[in-house]
Every structure is written in structure tokens, then in C-alpha cells.
Amino acid sequence: MATLNDSASLTQIQWLDTVKDLGTITEGQKLEVSFRFRNTGTKPLVIERVQPSCGCTVVDPPKEAIGPGKDGEIKGVFDSNGKLGPNHKSLTVFANIKQPRELVFTVIVNKKEGN
To answer: What is the rounded CA–CA span in Å between residue 103 and residue 95?
Structure first.
């Protein structure tokens, strides 16, 4: 298995999405977010981990290595409970690439209307 410290296993990645504006949602909604990428290097891409900026976002990175020339996706779910107003969240991707990459999404959470 490739490791972050093994320079011989480094590959290159082309991000198809790095910043997303997800608009406006109502408090309590769970919002799916995804960031697409392509392995443009010559080695399999191994995503070691993805670190969300807060516990309000749960991520689901690819479990298998992404071969050279192949596309992949990092998916997450943002829970808007208690997150009123503008939200600027990030996911930091640690993989067999030169440096970790920060992916960012923004969303505005409106108060839920009372019954």
C-alpha cells in the first residue's frame, strides 16, 4: 500500500471541483456535497484520509486506489442543525500527492419556519 511518506509512490491529481457554493437550505436539512477528481499521474492514487473542518460534515472518501487516468469522487454530508447563517466549511484531503489539498464549500442556512 502506498504511503504519504513514500516519494516513489506519489502521483498527481486534477481536481474538477475545489470550491462549491451550495446556495441556501433550511435548518435541519442534510446536504450532500461531492468533489470530483482525476488521477493524472502514473501511480495509483490512494486517499489516506479526509479531514472535515468540523463534526457537522461526514465524509466518504474512496476506499480503493484510483488508477492512473481514472476519475474519482469524495462525497460528504453536511448536517445543518444548529448552523444558522453563512457556513464556510472545508475538507482536507491527505493522499499520495505532494501536499494535502483543501476543498471548500459554502452554504447559507435559514431558520426553519415554525408551524
So the answer is: 13
Residue 106 domain-assigned? Answer: no
What is the count of structural domains for the chain? 1
Residue type, 110: N
CA distance 102 to 97: 13
What value, to the nearest 5°, has the Cα angle with vertex 97 and ends 7 and 43? 70
70: its cell numbers: 481514472
User: Does residue 1 register a pLDDT over 60?
Assistant: no
- Domain containing 82: what range? 7-99
What CATH number is given to the structural domain containing 75?
A: 2.60.40.10
Inside any domain, residue 32: yes
Phi and psi at 81, nearest 5°, equal: -60, 125
Q: Tens digit of pLDDT for each residue in 16-32? A: 999 999 999 999 999 99
